[in-house]
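FORM 12-B: Structure-to-Sequence Request
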């Protein structure tokens, strides 16, 4: 696995926790700090792609082509309207590609197809963020095999820690069989509110995982929900909003001690 790019799978098997929101806006915040950043949309729903104003119906290549091995990842990468931010887009064809790869014996070691593709481009980026689907399957396993670490968004609501336990169980299996160096290196509190429940969830997570939990939490913010409909990150859609300020602080925490490589 390349040492040049930090490869982060953003994942939580519990849906609706702000996973894609985090991929898009953390990617944009890292790019704003000067880091050349690639978002790999590995969810067939393609929300990260549409959230960055990429119309996959107008493209010849998407991540389905990469997974099938018909085209290299570098040919799939598209620039976005935001400086230093790139995306490898996806659409529903990715689900069909995953089924084909999983059932066809010609694909040796299908769990590592994404890792091999990312290794070929890792030297071109500082950060690679993989948007995982909210289910356990071949796509998620591929993302975990490719990643150097996992960032888990955790919603400040009931059953949040149950989703974390499920994720940790899956990571243990991947560690044992595919990627022994993988861990959940970062937890990000999302949809935080000034309520007793939100504070209790935050306290539980910080007591359990300590410094792995970002100091900054993402507040519940309607502008974050509105930004994808405009094909922009929150940094471009409403640059002074609480959501934009939060993701800038998280990017600063994540990239502490690193500087963009000169190209």
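FORM 12-B RESPONSE
SEQUENCE OUT:
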């Amino acid at each position: 696995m390349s040492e040049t790019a930090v490869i982060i799978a953003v994942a939580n098997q519990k849906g609706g926790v702000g996973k894609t929101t985090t991929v898009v806006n953390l990617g944009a915040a890292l790019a704003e700090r000067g880091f050349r950043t690639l978002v790999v949309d590995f969810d067939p729903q393609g929300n990260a792609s549409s959230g960055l104003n990429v119309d996959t119906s107008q493209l010849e290549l998407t991540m389905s082509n990469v997974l099938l091995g018909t085209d290299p990842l570098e040919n799939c990468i598209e620039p976005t309207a935001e400086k230093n931010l790139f995306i490898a887009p996806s659409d529903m064809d990715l689900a069909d590609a995953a089924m084909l790869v999983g059932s066809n014996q010609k694909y040796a070691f299908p769990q590592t197809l994404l890792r091999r593709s990312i290794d070929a481009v890792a030297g071109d980026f500082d950060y690679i963020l993989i948007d995982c689907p909210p289910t356990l399957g071949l796509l998620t396993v591929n993302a975990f095999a490719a990643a150097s670490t996992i960032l888990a968004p955790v919603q400040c609501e009931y059953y949040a820690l149950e989703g974390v336990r499920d994720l940790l169980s899956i990571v243990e299996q991947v560690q044992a069989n595919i990627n022994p160096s993988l861990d959940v290196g970062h937890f990000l509190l999302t949809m935080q509110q000034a309520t007793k429940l939100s504070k209790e969830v935050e306290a539980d997570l910080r007591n359990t995982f300590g410094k792995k939990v970002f100091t900054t939490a993402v507040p519940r913010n309607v502008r974050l929900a509105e930004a994808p409909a405009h094909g922009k990150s929150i940094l471009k859609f409403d640059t002074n909003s609480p959501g934009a300020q939060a993701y800038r602080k998280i990017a600063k925490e994540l990239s502490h001690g690193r500087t963009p490589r000169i190209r």
